[in-house]
Every structure is written in structure tokens, then in C-alpha cells.
Specification:
Length: about 150
Amino acid sequence: MKTAKDIMTTPVVTVKPEMEIKDLATRLSDNRISGAPVVDEEGRLLGIVTESDLLLTEKPVHIPTFFILLDSLVYFENPFKLDKELKELTARTVADIYTPDCLTISPETPVDEIASLMVEEKIYLLPVVDQDKKVVGIVSRTNMLSLIT
């Protein structure tokens, strides 16, 4: 049975948290990839950043609806959502937009398990990490489709 190590892409294009957003966009575009693992100085996984994260920096702000009752603001929606949207719009570095808690797989993860994870969790990229959380590869849906051909 095939495993992640049989289909993963290596070497992996990674980014650091301090990378500027415009440099991230260039790196993704130049390498024709939809996302990249975010790593520390030792190459250990911190999270993942994708094109979708970049697109969030361009969406319009939705101001929550509210009314005033007895000199207090009462929101119809979660006001913390506005705070999150403002942070995304003002993002300057990868650290401002990446997802820190991302799913990972090991080089020994069977491909049927990878396929299930991707479908059930609606994930397009899975970093492959070793025991020390160092990124050793990445599996994308494109890698999975290569099994069909």
C-alpha cells in the first residue's frame, strides 16, 4: 500500500512568519502552489498559509448590526468577527494570516487515510512532518490525483 512518502512533493516550499504578504503572494505564484507550510528557523512546522488566507486580506469589511439599549451597544452578531476581519485586512506578514493549528501526516500515513482526511476536513494541502515536527514533504490534491493516472 502506498504512503505519503511515495507521493509527497519534496523539497517543500516553506515560508517564515515574518515574510511580508506581497512576498508570500509572489512565492506562491512563482512556484505555482496554493499554499505553504510556515516554519521556524529549525524547519519545524508552525502552521500553514494558503491562497485563501491571502484572499481574506482583500475582502470588504462587514460591520456588525447593533442597536442601543439603555446606553449600551447590543450586537446582533459576534463583534469579535469584526476584530478578526480587521486583522486580516491590515495583515502585513504571514504571522498575521496563517493557520497555526493545521492537520499533518507522517511519511508512513497510508494514501487512503490521506484521501479521507482531505475529503472529510475539506483540506487541499497536508504537511508531512517527522517526529521532530520538521517538514519533510507536502501532499496536495494534485499528488492524490496522480494515483489515478
